[in-house]
Design goal:
Layout: E1 9-10, E2 19-29, E3 35-45, E4 54-57, E5 62-68, E6 71-72, E7 76-78, E8 81-84, E9 92-100, E10 110-114, E11 117-121, E12 141-150, E13 156-159, E14 162-168, E15 173-184, E16 191-194, E17 197-204, E18 210-217, H1 226-243, E19 251-257, E20 264-265, E21 270-274, H2 287-302, E22 311-312, H3 318-337, H4 340-363, E23 374-375, H5 384-417, E24 421-422, H6 424-433, H7 439-442, H8 444-447, H9 449-452, E25 458-466, E26 471-479
Amino acid sequence: MREGSAPLIRREDYAAPAFWIKTVDLTFDLDPAKTLVINKMTVAPNPALPGAPLRLDGEDINLTRVLVDGEPVSFRTEAGQLVLENLPQQPFHLEIRSTCAPEKNTQLSGLYTSSGGFFTQCEALGFRRITYFLDRPDVMATYKVTLKADLRKYPVLLSNGNLVEEGKLEGGKHFAVWEDPHPKPCYLFALVAADLVRREQRIRTRAGRDHLLQIYVRAGDLDKTEHAMNSLIASIAWDEARFGLSLDLERFMVVAVSDFNMGAMENKGLNIFNTKFVLANPATATDVDFGNVESVVAHEYFHNWTGNRVTCRDWFQLSLKEGLTVFRDQQFSQDMAGSPSARAVKRIEDVRTLRQLQFPEDAGPMAHPVRPDSYLAIDNFYTATVYEKGAEVVRMMHTLVGDAGFAQGMALYFERHDGQAVTCDDFAQAIADANPQSELAKRLEPFKRWYAQAGTPRVQAQGSYDAANQIYTLKLSQRSAPTPGQ
């Protein structure tokens, strides 16, 4: 490597952390110039790595205090990590106090300010810009979050999960306490503090539970949120009917702001969107706009299970959540289309996107497998191959086992792995094990080459007809050309 270049991250080098974080209690005293973050964690050592130091990731953070079980401890920082040694070999309480400057965060990764509000974006490595943490997807914890801010400037205070308390404080401030009962990796953490208005709707699901749905937008945009709300309601109903996956929180929130630097993000219970994929009304939006809103709202909601309840062991498994969820939102959009011809048109659109975006990627110098073996920067990993080709790999599994078999495989997947961080292999194994007589189960190892082989295969067909016996024989062969690194 050249001096100063980023280290190469290899999938084969994955190792479990020396410690696990079980619970997180965060308190934010929000100020654009200097936000105080108090991070109280329950930390458990990994018995397989006794005596190893705890290395917490951090970036652009001013560290002020570190306590272990209430007592100050010595520490050092090196290579962007806070290092703690000689820690208890049983679960202990770790408290870290630090400050950050959201108004100076021009990366829009972590906690930042924009247009007078606070927002977060933590996928893939943004949480380390908020507090020192094990910033990796296989560390899953339950979160309690207390937000404090100026009531006049930031009347809306949101975070993941269920609202458990709110009220006023001295000095013109107010607070809100949010609690997420479901373990999640830190990349799914979200915080919003801003002056927003909302559209809300109460629903009752098939499971017989009542939920509050809310869409928050800037003042003046409320009239453009009806379609997004209807799309969210339809997504919730579809996932429950198709896969038996129910909404698992008291409320589900969507925040749409023009200064969000991604299309949308599936933070647990608090999805943050760019306005492009939420705002639509007949006066300003096209049919394509309406379709995109429906698809993206569905995609982020479907992540609630395929990505949030079961997440990725490491970032090499990104297609585990993205390819699967793209497939699910494609199926949803086809079902919403209704008639067979409309469903076919939707499938043609998806294939056209694959051919226009992913095929050139697979044919050029940036070709890579659905699950690459190495990367320099995870931000370069969000590609048409991981998403669209990954969805086609899932679609092939669906084709091999059928609608009912795929639903059985999904059920087994969640039965085995709910609340875990797993791999693409775990998903494929669950689909195969739920359908032991299928061709997928019989040839699972060869099938999994789709995760490892880059490039678009070239298929050749040769046919011959035996007129005397009225038998037509079709021979198919498949070949993949060499690709970079393969």
